[in-house]
Amino acid sequence: MTKPILQVENVKKYFPITGGILGKKIGDMKAVDGVSFHVNEGETLGIVGESGCGKSTTGRMLLRLIEPTEGTILFDNRDLRALPKKEMRKVRRHIQMIFQDPYASLNPRHTVEKILEEPLIVHGIGNEAERKKKVSDMLEVVGLTSYHARRYPHQFSGGQRQRIGIARALMTNPKLIIADEPVSALDVSIQSQVLNLLKDLQKEFQLTYIFIAHDLGVVRHISDRVGVMYKGRMVELADAEKIYQNPLHPYTQQLLAAVPIPDPEYYQADEQAAIQFGTLPSKYVIDDSWMNIDSERDDLIEVAPGHFVACRLK
Amino acid sequence: MLTYTIRRLLMLIPVLFGMTFVVFFIIRAIPGDPAQVILGQQATKEAVAQLTEKLGLNDPWYVQFFHYVKGLLSGDLGESLRSSAPIKDEIWPYLAATLELSLVAMFIAIFIGVNAGIISAWFQNSWFDYVAMILALIGISIPVFWLGLMEQWAFSLELGWLPSTGRENVRDPVEVVTNLYLIDTLIAGRFDQFGEVIRHLILPSLALATIPMAIIARITRSSMLEVMRSDYIRTARAKGMRMFFVVYKHSLKNAVIPVLTVIGLQVGLLLGGAILTETIFGWPGIGRYIYEAIGFRDYPVIQSGILIIATIFILINLIVDLLYVAIDPRIKYN
Amino acid sequence: MSGESVLEVKNLRTSFFTDDGEVAAVDDIDFYINKGEILGVVGESGCGKSVTSLSIMGLVPSPPGKIVGGEILYKGEDLTKASEKRMRQIRGNDITMIFQEPMTSLNPLFTIGNQIMETIRLHNKWNKQQVKERAIEILQMVGLPRAEELLNEYPHQLSGGMRQRVMIAMAMVCNPQLLIADEPTTALDVTIQAQILKLMKKLNHDYQTAIMMITHDLGVVAEVCQRVVVMYAGKVVEEGDIATIYKSPKHPYTVGLIKSVPDMRKKVDRLYSIPGNVPKPGSIKEGCRFAARCEHAFDRCFTETPELYQTGEGQKVRCFLYEQQGGVSK
C-alpha cells in the first residue's frame, strides 16, 4: 500500500513580471517555489493553504495544464515533464481533475451523457454501446440515475453538478484524482454528501486523491496526510493527525488557531480562562514570528518519522 | 500616466506613416493617367508629358513617396491642381466648417444620448425606457439623406422656421477670423449673427447627430444596467445616498468607458459621414471639398483631405485611450 | 423583549414576482435583535437570509421584489411604511450594512477617502476638516495602518482583508445602532477572517452596536454570536441562544446541519449528511419546508405548516415533534 504513485521533486513555477516603457521582464512572481512531496497509492494527500499560496497552481502543474518552470514529476515512475504532448495526453487518462465550480467546468450546451462520454471518446475507449452503458453505470455510482443523462448542466443543483463532475473524472478509470476545492462552492448540507461520496468512491475504485482546499476541517476529514503551503512553498507535511494535534511550523499553528470551531463552549472556556489570567483569549494571540523567517533557505526537514517542517526554529 | 502618454505618442509615428502610405497608394491605384485625365482627351502629347514631369509621376514610386512625406513633414500638403493654390491655405475654411458642424452634432448626440441611456437604465422597463429605445432603434435605421430631406421639407419648406442650406445669411456675411462662425460672430460682437449661425446649424447637426445619438443611448443604457447591478452600487445605496447621486456619480463614472469607446469611433464616422449631410444642406465643409475634388480628379486635394480626416480620427481615439487611464486607476499600461 | 430590542421583524414576507408567479423568498418570518447583541442568522443558499437583510435596508430590488406583508420595527418605527427620504436617513446612519465580497463592494473609481467621507457628509453637517478627521479616526479604529495615506488610495491597491476593514469603517463611521453583516468573511482567508471577526467583536463591545451576522458557517456563529436564528427555505426553523442550540438542537434541519460540519478537532470516519438538495426559493408551498429531506417526517408535515413552538428558555422550534412541549408562541 505504501508504494508512491506520484513523486514531485522541487517543482517551480515562475511567472514573469514586466515593466518599464518597453515592457521588459523585471522579475519573477514565484507562484510555486520548489515544492516536493509524494503520494502513495490509495491514500489522500490534502494540500491546504490560503489564497495565492500556490496550491492550485501546484495541482495544475501535475497534469501539465500549467507547464512547470523547473522540477520533476514522476507518475508511475515516468517523468511527465519529459513526455511528448501525445504521450502526455495518454497519461491524462490515469490522472483526472475535479474542479471547484462544477458549472463553469461543464459545457452548458452538452447533455450529461455527452459530457460523460467525451473522455471515453477522446481516449478511444469502448464502442458506442459500451460507452452508453458506462455512462449510466457511472451516474448510478455517483448517486444520480440514468434518467439524468439526457439533461443539461443548468437543470441540476450545485451538488448534483459536482456529482456529474466527479462522474466525468471517473469515466476513464483513473488512478489519481486531483480535486481542486471540490466542495467549497457547495452548501454545508451538500458538502458532507459529496465528501462522503468521495470517500466511498476511493474505497470502491482504489483511488488516490490529491485534495486541494482552504477549509481545514474538510481537509482533516478526508486526508491521510496533509501538506501546508505558504507563499509558494510547502512549510509542513505530515500525517493528518500529527498536523492537527501537533503542528510544528508557526504558520500551521497560526492557520489552525484561526479556524472557527462550531462549538460555543470552546470559546466560553477560552474567554473565561483569559479573564481569569488577565490575558487575551489564546485564539487571539497573534504569533507572527514566522513572518520574519527567511523561507527561501528553509528546506523541508524530517523532524519526526513522516513529519516534515521547513523552519529553522524547530 | 506621463510614461504612457509618451509611449502612445511614439506609437503614433508608425501608425501615421502607415496611413500615409496607404492613402498614397490608393490614390495611385485609380485607373488612368492622372495627367491625361486632368488635361482632358484633347490635350496634346507634349502637354501631357510636361504635366507628368511637373507632377513627378515619372519618378519611381518610392521617390514620389519620399518627396510627399518630406513635404508633409514641412507642413506642405501640396498644390491643388484645379486652383494651383497651396492646399494648406485652401483647406482650412472647409475643415473649420466641418469641425463646427461635427462638434455641435457630437455635443447634441452625447448630451441627449448619454442622458437618455442613463434614464432608461435607471427606470428600466418604464414607458420612458421603451419609447427611448424604440426611438433609438429607429434612429439607427434611418438613412441620413432621407432624414435630412424630411427635415428640410418640414422645418424650412412647410413651416418656414429654419433655413434649409448654408452656414450663414448670405446677405449679411460673417466677418471671418477663425472660420469657426460661432466664435467669429462673438468676436465681432454680432449676437444677431450668432443666432443666425445657430439657426443654420440646427437642421444639419440634428441630421448628423441622429445615428451617433441612438448608438450612444443604447450603449449607455446597457453599460449602466450592468454597473447598477454591481455590489458597490448596493454599497452606495446602503450609505443612504440619493438615487440621483448613485446614478450620476457612482454608476456613470463606471459605465462611461464603453461609451467613450463608441464616442471615439462615432466622431470618426461623423467626419467621414458628413459628406452626405454637407451635400444635402449645402454646407461648405471638407466633405464637400473632397467630393468636388473627386469630380475634378484633383488628386493632391483628395489625398490631403483623407489624410487630415484620418489623422483627426487617430488623435481622437488617442484622447479616448488617455481618458480611460485618467478615469480608471486600475488601468495601467506598463 | 420589545423593550430592549433595536429591531423587531414581524411576519415579514418578501416576494419576487416572476413570470412563474409570486415567489416568497422570505415567508412570514419573525425575529428580533436586542441592543448591543450579536445575532447570527444561519442558513444555506436560497434560505432567504440575504433577502431578509435587504428588506430591512429597504433595498430589495424592485421590481421584481417587494415586501408584501409584515412589519420591520426599528425602535418602534415600521420601516416597511417609511418614506424613501426617511429610509435614506436611516441607511448608513442608524442601520448599516457590509457585504460578502470586499473586492467588489467598494467603487473601484473613487478613493477610499472619497467613499468614507461621502458617508459622513450624507449624515452630518460638518466642515471639511471635521469630516477628514473623523475619516482618519475611523480608519485607525478598524486597525488600518497609515490611515491618512489610505484616504488617497484606490480599492484595488488594498488586499481583501483591508477592503473589508474599509467597508466596516464606512459602516461604523456614523455610530449605527445596528450593523448587518452579510457573510462578511466568506470570501476571506481564515487568518484574515479571524482578524475581521475579532474586530467586529471589539466594535460590538466598545460601541454597543448590535450586529446581525448572516452566515452559513456554524463556526463563525459559535465564535461571535450570542443568539442564533436558523433559516430554511424562507422560514425561521429554529431560534435560541447559541449554547442551547449547539448543545441540544431540536429541529431536524439544525441537528443535521450541525452534524454535517467536519470538526477540525476530531476525526470521524463518516460525516452525517442531510439527504436531498437545497430547495429553490418558493419551490415548496405547502407543509413543513424541510419535510422532504427529513428523517422524522410524517403525513402531517407535508400538508400543514408547523408554528414556532417554544421548547425551553429562549429556544423556539418550527417542528411538529415539539408541538406538545411548549405550545404555540407567536
TrEMBL record, chain A:
<keyword id="KW-0067">ATP-binding</keyword>
<keyword id="KW-0813">Transport</keyword>
<keyword id="KW-0547">Nucleotide-binding</keyword>
<feature type="domain" description="ABC transporter">
    <location>
        <begin position="6"/>
        <end position="256"/>
    </location>
</feature>
<dbReference type="Pfam" id="PF00005">
    <property type="entry name" value="ABC_tran"/>
</dbReference>
<dbReference type="InterPro" id="IPR017871">
    <property type="entry name" value="ABC_transporter-like_CS"/>
</dbReference>
<dbReference type="InterPro" id="IPR003439">
    <property type="entry name" value="ABC_transporter-like_ATP-bd"/>
</dbReference>
<comment type="similarity">
    <text>Belongs to the ABC transporter superfamily.</text>
</comment>
<dbReference type="GO" id="GO:0005524">
    <property type="term" value="F:ATP binding"/>
</dbReference>
<dbReference type="Pfam" id="PF08352">
    <property type="entry name" value="oligo_HPY"/>
</dbReference>
<dbReference type="InterPro" id="IPR013563">
    <property type="entry name" value="Oligopep_ABC_C"/>
</dbReference>
<dbReference type="InterPro" id="IPR027417">
    <property type="entry name" value="P-loop_NTPase"/>
</dbReference>
<dbReference type="InterPro" id="IPR003593">
    <property type="entry name" value="AAA+_ATPase"/>
</dbReference>
<dbReference type="InterPro" id="IPR050319">
    <property type="entry name" value="ABC_transp_ATP-bind"/>
</dbReference>
<protein>
    <submittedName>
        <fullName>Oligopeptide transport system ATP-binding protein</fullName>
    </submittedName>
</protein>
From TrEMBL, chain B:
<feature type="transmembrane region" description="Helical">
    <location>
        <begin position="201"/>
        <end position="220"/>
    </location>
</feature>
<comment type="similarity">
    <text>Belongs to the binding-protein-dependent transport system permease family.</text>
</comment>
<feature type="transmembrane region" description="Helical">
    <location>
        <begin position="101"/>
        <end position="123"/>
    </location>
</feature>
<keyword id="KW-1133">Transmembrane helix</keyword>
<feature type="transmembrane region" description="Helical">
    <location>
        <begin position="301"/>
        <end position="327"/>
    </location>
</feature>
<keyword id="KW-0813">Transport</keyword>
<dbReference type="Pfam" id="PF00528">
    <property type="entry name" value="BPD_transp_1"/>
</dbReference>
<keyword id="KW-1003">Cell membrane</keyword>
<feature type="transmembrane region" description="Helical">
    <location>
        <begin position="130"/>
        <end position="149"/>
    </location>
</feature>
<dbReference type="InterPro" id="IPR035906">
    <property type="entry name" value="MetI-like_sf"/>
</dbReference>
<feature type="domain" description="ABC transmembrane type-1">
    <location>
        <begin position="95"/>
        <end position="324"/>
    </location>
</feature>
<dbReference type="InterPro" id="IPR000515">
    <property type="entry name" value="MetI-like"/>
</dbReference>
<feature type="transmembrane region" description="Helical">
    <location>
        <begin position="9"/>
        <end position="30"/>
    </location>
</feature>
<protein>
    <submittedName>
        <fullName>Peptide/nickel transport system permease protein</fullName>
    </submittedName>
</protein>
<keyword id="KW-0472">Membrane</keyword>
Automatic annotation (TrEMBL), chain C:
<protein>
    <submittedName>
        <fullName>Peptide/nickel transport system ATP-binding protein</fullName>
    </submittedName>
</protein>
<dbReference type="Pfam" id="PF08352">
    <property type="entry name" value="oligo_HPY"/>
</dbReference>
<dbReference type="InterPro" id="IPR013563">
    <property type="entry name" value="Oligopep_ABC_C"/>
</dbReference>
<keyword id="KW-1003">Cell membrane</keyword>
<keyword id="KW-0067">ATP-binding</keyword>
<dbReference type="InterPro" id="IPR050388">
    <property type="entry name" value="ABC_Ni/Peptide_Import"/>
</dbReference>
<dbReference type="InterPro" id="IPR003439">
    <property type="entry name" value="ABC_transporter-like_ATP-bd"/>
</dbReference>
<dbReference type="InterPro" id="IPR003593">
    <property type="entry name" value="AAA+_ATPase"/>
</dbReference>
<dbReference type="Pfam" id="PF00005">
    <property type="entry name" value="ABC_tran"/>
</dbReference>
<comment type="similarity">
    <text>Belongs to the ABC transporter superfamily.</text>
</comment>
<keyword id="KW-0813">Transport</keyword>
<keyword id="KW-0472">Membrane</keyword>
<feature type="domain" description="ABC transporter">
    <location>
        <begin position="7"/>
        <end position="258"/>
    </location>
</feature>
<dbReference type="InterPro" id="IPR017871">
    <property type="entry name" value="ABC_transporter-like_CS"/>
</dbReference>
<dbReference type="GO" id="GO:0005524">
    <property type="term" value="F:ATP binding"/>
</dbReference>
